[in-house]
Amino acid sequence: MRPFVILSGCSGGGKSSLLEELARRGYRVVEEPGRRIVREEPEQGGSALPWIDVAAFLRRAITVSLADLDVAPSQGWVFFDRGLIDAASALQHVTGESVLEELGRKHRYYPQVFLTPPWPEIYGTDAERRHSFDEAMAEYDRLLKTYPILGYEVILLPKIGIRERADFILETLQGS
């Protein structure tokens, strides 16, 4: 079993801050593909951005996610901010393309997935996250259903401080 742990859930729920904490503790982390794409596309003159061409953006997110899996070390925990399942789920939702089942079954992560619940008090938009809280909620609801369909155990992260959330994840993984 690969030690690749997904942190997913509602946008603006604290995933990036949590990954920063895990990195400070010496764990390997993989930044969200979408945020990397949103930074790179304008530099390259591309249009694979969620507010311009969402399908192209999601296809690129799948490609980046697959590359992330290929280069991730297989020793020790590696924490992914979103990844392949999120991108495939979104592409299937937006276009109707049946990609989730095949990609989700072929490329497996650790069987426990940690989801950040909606947390309106900390939600915010920025240059890389332009969608509304309602859109983030819809995405969260879709992911909450998607992961169990693919055989993952979903663990909702409590709304507590970053250090305590990191402790919660590590303690949960130790017990599994």
Keywords:
Rossmann fold; alpha/beta; 176 residues; 51% helix; 7 helices; 5 strands; globular; five-stranded parallel beta sheet
Describe this structure in words.
The structure is a single chain. The chain contains seven helices and five strands, in the order βαβααβααβαβα. The protein is an alpha/beta fold and 176 residues long. The chain has one domain: Rossmann fold (3-Layer(aba) Sandwich), CATH 3.40.50. It has a five-stranded parallel β-sheet with strand order 2-3-1-4-5, with helices on both faces. It is globular, with a radius of gyration of 15 Å. The mean pLDDT is 89.
Produce a short descriptive summary:
This is AAA family ATPase. The protein contains 7 helices and 5 strands; from the N terminus they run βαβααβααβαβα. The protein has 176 residues and is of the alpha/beta class.
Compile the SSE list and pairings.
Blueprint: E1 4-9, H1 15-24, E2 28-30, H2 33-43, H3 54-71, E3 78-81, H4 84-95, H5 100-106, E4 112-116, H6 133-149, E5 153-156, H7 162-175
Parallel strand pairs: 1-3, 1-4, 2-3, 4-5
Helix pairs in contact: 1-7, 3-4, 4-6
Domain NadR/Ttd14 AAA: 5-165
InterPro entries: NadR/Ttd14_AAA_dom, P-loop_NTPase
Organism: Terriglobus albidus
